Amino acid sequence: MGGTVTSKDKGRPKTKTERKAAEAAELEKRRALRAQREFEAFGAERERRPGALSASEVWWCQQYQWLKARGYLLRPRYAPEWIPSWDGSQRDPFSCEDGQGLEFGRIIDATRVSDGLYISLKVLNKSEFPHEVHIGQYFMAERLASDPKNHCVPFLDVLSVPNEEDKQIIVMPLLLEFTRPRFDTFGEVVECFRQLFEGLLFMHNNHVAHRDCMSRNIMMDAKSLYVEPYHPVEPRMKRDFSGHAGHYTRTQRPPKYYFIDFGLSRQYDAHENNPLEYPIFGGDKSVPEFQSRVDVPLNPFPTDVYYLGNVIRQEFLTTKTGFDFLKPLVDDMVQNDPNKRPTMNVVVERFDTIRQQLSTWKLRSRVSARNEGPLESLYRGATHWRRRIALIVGRAPAVPRLEK
């Protein structure tokens, strides 16, 4: 049949037409996902013209002037005098910079006027998340903020919203999903895991359980990765939407990884050896101990271990090749009985041993997806080897490390 896709088709490079069709399909998928998330967050779906402001965006527009007065400038889309750049033309709003709406209505990007730093603003209700600001500010205390093991997203400022006593806005650096752009080498992934294990242990050593450290709550500071600033809604594009955003590899420009979203997090007394909390579902609904024991309070720290182990299992072990060396550790982190899971101290120690046993060849090898076709693999392998030889000649380490 004409529509049948053969195994050969999967391996051949896509034509320009096919690439455009794939990009259009991805764009439509993102639109649908954005609409669904808006529906879930605001409880109402309304018809609107393509590119028009959503319900959550209208609220941000109403904050434009006072945020500007406080030193934070939203994108032109949210200015009171905004006129869509595509008005009167045949252009697709989603191909324009000011046609890029919010993926999550509670979070918006902005620019700090004083120094041009790109930032994120997150609005929350204190009555709904009473601990988030306290925990974020706790990790901003000087003795903790200066510790390189601290991987909690920095709270740069906390604003009270005029005439809305229950609302606060947290100012944070602009961060990017930790899996994009793609990892190039195993050494890059190993460094990512090292930082994440270190960061969660740091939280636990300070008696804080994250309670929602799933993949969407792990981000990275990617500004040094990009040749020019990326667009906060569509990172594959330049910020001004003048073309695709070029980037370096993580070996060339090592990023720092962060845990975000402390809405469900809790801090406990240092003398409390076995704190107990009733189960509360975060983004990862698969926690074994939550499936049948919702009325029984549990220690949240082993659940954190599960969350992070499950991130590695889902994002790497099941979708990428060559990560078998991590399977015994991850299997222990995600086992059904929380009492049998290792503590983060033990995880860090075991991972350090695993890391030291990996050869330089392995660490410099390319990370490949399980669903790569043969021609895609050939192309990516060739470009990887060009980079690899250049990095070896330049004496770049096999495991990139942040400069302290």
List the helices and strands and how they pair.
Layout: H1 7-11, H2 16-42, H3 55-62, H4 64-69, E1 72-73, E2 107-112, E3 118-125, H5 132-138, H6 142-145, E4 157-160, E5 167-173, E6 176-177, H7 186-205, E7 208-209, E8 218-221, E9 256-259, E10 266-267, H8 300-317, H9 327-333, H10 344-357, H11 360-364, H12 374-393
Antiparallel strand pairs: 1-2, 2-3, 3-5, 4-5, 6-8, 7-10, 8-9
Description:
The protein is 35% helix and 10% strand. The chain has helices spanning 7-11, 16-42, 55-62, 64-69, 132-138, 142-145, 186-205, 300-317, 327-333, 344-357, 360-364, 374-393; strands spanning 72-73, 107-112, 118-125, 157-160, 167-173, 176-177, 208-209, 218-221, 256-259, 266-267. The strands form 3 sheets. The protein has a 5-stranded antiparallel β-sheet. Helix 7 (186-205) packs antiparallel against helix 8, helix 7 (186-205) packs antiparallel against helix 10 and helix 8 (300-317) runs antiparallel to helix 9 (327-333).
List keywords for this structure.
three-stranded antiparallel sheet; five-stranded antiparallel sheet; 404 residues; disordered N terminus
Please trace the helix and strand order, writing H or E for each element: HHHHEEEHHEEEHEEEEHHHHH
Helix content: 25-40%
Order of strands, widest sheet: 1-2-3-5-4
Cα radius of gyration in angstroms? 23 Å
Helix and strand content put the structural class at alpha+beta
Biggest beta sheet summary? 5 strands, antiparallel
Strand percentage lies at 5-15%
So how many helices? 12
User: Count of DSSP E strands?
Assistant: 10
Summed up:
Helices cover 35% and strands 10% of the residues. By secondary structure, the chain is an alpha+beta fold.
